[in-house]
Prior knowledge:
By secondary structure, the chain is an alpha/beta fold. The chain has a single domain, classed as Rossmann fold (3-Layer(aba) Sandwich), CATH 3.40.50. The chain contains five helices and five strands. Strand 4, helix 4 and strand 5 form a beta-alpha-beta unit.
Amino acid sequence: MSKPVILCVDDERIILDSLRTQLTAEFGDAYTYEGAEDAEEALDVISELSDEETSVILIICDWLMPGIKGDELLIRIHQSYPHVIKIMLTGQADEVAIDRAKKQANLYRCLSKPWLESDLLETIRSGLSKL
């Protein structure tokens, strides 16, 4: 059986690398960590993992990305995978987008960039405890 996946979605590679480093340091090999640089890639990753019967259990998603914004991505994911814990990590989301994600995607939390590692990790641990 494959390990559950935490998916990070951000159009900045340095952010994805930083998240992977922090997640690996905190959770080790308990999870598989995947990254996507835009919404389309994220949807492809989720679809491929689903085909392999591998569960994405948590998504950390930026809001301002080329193409599909983070709130719309999380709403799309929620429609097919409502059990996934969704965290938005952004410096630029407006309140309307955050509110829409809370109502339509069951957004768990929204954290601001730059984030405190301790806040992010506590939010992830808290979210995972809801599974």
